[in-house]
Amino acid sequence: MTTLAPTHPETTTPALVVRCVSHAFGDKKVLDNVSLTVEQGKFVMLLGLNGAGKSTLFSLVTRLYDNVSGEILIRGFDVRRKPTAALQRLGVVFQSRTLDNDISLLQNLKYHAALHGMSTRLATERAMQALEIVGLAERAEEKIRAMSGGQARRVEIARSLMHKPDLLLLDEATVGLDVGSRESAIGIVRDLVAKQGLGVLWATHLMDEVRPSDLVVVLHKGKVLYNGSVPDFLKSTNTGTVGAAFRVITGSSAEEAA
Predict the structure, then answer these.
(1) pTM (2 decimals)?
(2) Which of 32, 168, 254, 255 has its CA 20 to 30 A from that of 83?
(3) How many beta carbons lie within 10 A of that of residue 132, not counting itself?
């Protein structure tokens, strides 16, 4: 497998630590004392309905918003005190599409590489490696507008790998994709965890994306209601599926959880 393994492979320091973080917009508190950890080489599912606070949490981790309470550490670097060192180790796929439709896959990735200060030669090399990982190297010169939604999402995953991050954040990365495209995208990311040791925090409201081997954090109305393994999640709620366990612990209806 083509590799864009993390630049800092040591595993003793967690990929991400969020400790006692709260956030409000005016009088509306959207995160309330949130804590979670993503160890290096682990896949963590952040489960929550729309409006649970997942995107706000990601905005704090990525410094789009400033966290004024608690701590957020990426590989041990505080995002407030050492933002450059922290963000150099972070790759992100946001929910909204952010590619330029009028230029090629390769050009999109090289533009991103330039923002990280890479030379043209290194940028091209890294871009082709990343596109190979997501199965699109042979289409490097095609424009984004020629891609399906699932293929464009895979390009965004490739782009997030260009600077060899230790941590990937993916915010509702499969929303709007068909079943095959969803499985392809999440399969690529799971392979990166298993084979290249990345830490991943995958935010979703789609319960069927969870596997028994995942770690799960349930975020509901800004609070963490569960943080642990899938088997323990099912056992603690006396249920047989993640969807049912989620409904029990959040008090949500089947329609809401769906």
Answers:
(1) 0.91
(2) 32
(3) 17
